[in-house]
């Protein structure tokens, strides 16, 4: 395969180009940077690095590989991870893309990357792996190159995390996808789901059949709260959840309207009974980082569910159950399982 993830010490990997997560200044850093300097020969590599000078975040430059089993060392600089920091994500993507572009320019047939940014810069491992995969895949597709791209991870947890999540997703689909049958969380058809009284179902679920006896004052108060909450339409509940989680409404449609038009949110604010498209409703659940029960509850208010008879729905269920609450990551899981992207969800 052109892109592979291997567990090894990057200084022992044979490749035309070895990528180093470099210090922006001509100095030896910690982690991968120190390991590569040590294996290549600190004196020679540092002398070459000083000739280059400073390297800006996202930029790349090559030097000889010296004692490494490679032709070149490609040096690239990342920046610190910060939650919701688009600049950090863009910089990490540039580190991979520019390294690949330079390797292609140098006629490299193979390149080995460390898991850039996950050391001192603090990028989450899963996030970093997904970026490495997506940038590499796009590069191979756009250039038509057959370059062998290796993502080299040293610790066991980093290596196993991606494979483990993929395995869990597959197992969830195998266990929950019922082909050619309409089965949802409650064993109902989609028509039954929409026609059945939400409040009655929630009352039965809440008290588990205890309604045959008189309710205590506390139980009655709780039931009233269930009634009140159940009566809230989709739009009202969305903004209530966003306020509770302190999420800006603009985040619901994404930076530069990445997920859908901001006019949808405007319409929801003006009309509490606004009925969204299914992909909009699911996307909002994802952005709000709801668990599966919360997701099903919110979707129900818009007349939708995540049915076990639709593979795309099951994949989304699996992602949510496994803590994947990122739009792009879920889109990738849908693609990996031969499903259409979120935007085409029906």
Description:
The protein is of the alpha/beta class. It has two domains: 152 residues, Leucine Aminopeptidase, subunit E, domain 1 (3-Layer(aba) Sandwich), CATH 3.40.220; 155 residues, no CATH class. Helix content is 51%, strand content 9%. It is built from 15 helices and six strands. It has a six-stranded mixed beta sheet, with helices on both faces. β5, α4 and β6 form a beta-alpha-beta unit. α1 crosses α2, α3 packs across α4 and α12 runs antiparallel to α13. The radius of gyration is 25 Å and the shape is elongated. The two termini are 33 Å apart. About 6% of the residues have low confidence.
Fold blueprint:
Layout: E1 3-7, E2 17-21, H1 31-40, H2 42-52, E3 60-64, E4 72-76, H3 86-105, E5 110-113, H4 125-143, E6 148-153, H5 156-176, H6 190-195, H7 198-207, H8 217-230, H9 234-244, H10 249-253, H11 262-270, H12 278-287, H13 292-301, H14 311-321, H15 327-336
Parallel strand pairs: 1-6, 2-4, 2-5, 5-6
Antiparallel strand pairs: 3-4
Helix pairs in contact: 1-2, 3-4, 5-14, 7-8, 12-13
Poorly predicted segments = 180-200
End-to-end span in angstroms?
33 Å
Q: What gyration radius follows from the Cα positions, in whole Å?
A: 25 Å
Oligomer: single chain
Task: State the helical fraction.
Answer: 40-55%
Brief characterization of the structure:
The chain has 346 residues and is α/β, with parallel strands linked by helices.
Task: Record keyword descriptors for this entry.
346 residues; Leucine Aminopeptidase, subunit E, domain 1; six-stranded mixed β-sheet; elongated
């Amino acid at each position: 395969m052109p892109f592979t993830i291997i567990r090894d010490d990057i200084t022992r990997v044979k490749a035309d180009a070895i990528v180093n997560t470099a210090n922006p200044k001509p100095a030896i850093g910690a982690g991968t940077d120190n390991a590569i300097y040590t294996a290549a020969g600190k004196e020679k590599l540092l002398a070459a690095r000083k000739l280059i000078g400073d390297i800006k975040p996202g930029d790349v430059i090559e030097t000889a590989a010296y004692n490494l089993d490679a032709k070149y060392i490609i040096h690239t600089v990342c920046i610190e991870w910060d939650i919701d920091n688009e600049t950090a994500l863009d910089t990490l993507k540039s580190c991979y893309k520019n390294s690949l572009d330079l390797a292609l320019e140098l006629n490299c047939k193979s390149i080995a990357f460390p898991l850039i940014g996950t050391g001192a810069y603090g990028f989450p491992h899963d996030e970093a792996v997904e970026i490495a995969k997506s940038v590499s895949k796009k590069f191979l597709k756009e250039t038509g190159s057959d370059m062998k791209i290796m993502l080299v991870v040293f610790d066991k947890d980093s290596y196993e995390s991606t494979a483990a999540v993929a395995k869990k997703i597959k197992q969830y689909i195998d266990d929950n996808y019922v082909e050619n049958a309409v089965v949802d969380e409650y064993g109902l058809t989609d028509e039954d789901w929409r026609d059945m009284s939400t409040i009655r179902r929630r009352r039965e679920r809440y008290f588990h059949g205890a309604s045959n006896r008189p309710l205590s004052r506390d139980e009655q108060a709780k039931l009233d709260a269930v009634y009140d909450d159940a009566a809230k339409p989709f739009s009202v509940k969305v903004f209530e959840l966003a306020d509770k989680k302190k999420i800006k409404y603009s985040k619901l449609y994404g930076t530069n309207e990445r997920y859908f038009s901001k006019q949808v949110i405007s319409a929801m604010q003006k009309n509490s009974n606004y009925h969204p498209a299914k992909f909009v409703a699911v996307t909002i659940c994802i952005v709000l980082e709801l668990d599966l029960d919360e997701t099903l509850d919110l979707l129900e208010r818009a007349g939708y569910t995540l049915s076990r008879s639709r593979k795309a729905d099951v994949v989304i269920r699996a992602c949510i159950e496994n803590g994947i609450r990122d739009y792009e990551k879920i889109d990738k899981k849908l693609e990996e399982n031969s499903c259409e992207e979120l935007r085409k969800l029906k």
